[in-house]
Specification:
The structure is a single chain. The protein has two domains: 125 residues, NAD(P)-binding Rossmann-like Domain (Rossmann fold, 3-Layer(aba) Sandwich), CATH 3.40.50; 166 residues, Dihydrodipicolinate Reductase, domain 2 (2-Layer Sandwich). Helices cover 38% and strands 23% of the residues. The chain has twelve helices and eleven strands. It is globular, with a radius of gyration of 20 Å.
Length: 312
Amino acid sequence: MEKVIVGLMGFGNIGSGFAAILEENKEQIECSLSRSIVIKRILVKDPENFTDLNITEEYFTGNADLILNDPEIDIVVELIGGVHPAYEYITRAIESGKHVVTANKAIMAIYGRELFALADKNRVSIRFEGSVGGGIPIIASLTRSLAGNQIEEIVGIINGTTNYILTRMYESNMSFQDALSEAQAKGFAEADPSSDIEGEDAAYKISILTHVAFGVYVKPEDIPCTGIGQISETEIEFANELGYKIKLLAAVRRNNANGSLDIHVHPTLVPFEHPLSSINHEFNALFIKGNAIGDLMLYGKGAGSLPTGSAV
């Protein structure tokens, strides 16, 4: 059976989940692809932490060149996170004629146009399903299953941290700070949650979806964005009395009158009867409207090692 050789950059939460899925579902993957996927080398920060494992000495490495300069490696899977040096690694991989898979929302939102052009020039592919929605197959749905549609609208809950916080504030009348602390204790929020709380994470993701669905590049910093840091339990209670839940929604809509797009990220009053109002805790959902399909909603876990590893 033909082998696809992979160089994995990053072995944290998502990287280890990706590797675990390849091992656990090996037979299913090989049957589906008629190929086997083999990880040849993994880039980690401290290779010495893995020396007690019964594997070859260079399987875990701190030297990116051993992946980027290896002619046997077909695909580089970038799961380091952050912008630098991940951007430089992706660029070098493409220039070396290697396909790239990444879950890096910041890089795809900021440098997506440049990387697509570079990939075309070098006749390789760059795939980024895991960059939006965790395990929800939103990119594949838009580019394949819904390719026969003119997309009119995408509205979604695409940040699990903020959705968890707002859910707990609603369920238990918790303060914002108490709900945030609980989310951090359960691993649903980072030690520094500012990117999530302020809406930056959601802006990255709706920027990516705008390009995929509408073919328009919009810089994340140009997207009007309001986070949830100022929402109190009193506001949650008032919304509930009026028949609404407060959700942090990211949205892009086509203005059919002139073809312009309306893009924003902000807390929104969602009526109880709307499907998005029932999306709770760390789950994500995307409500899509196409001119042929009508209304469609995708729902699932928006983060985590296995959901995002599955997307990768």
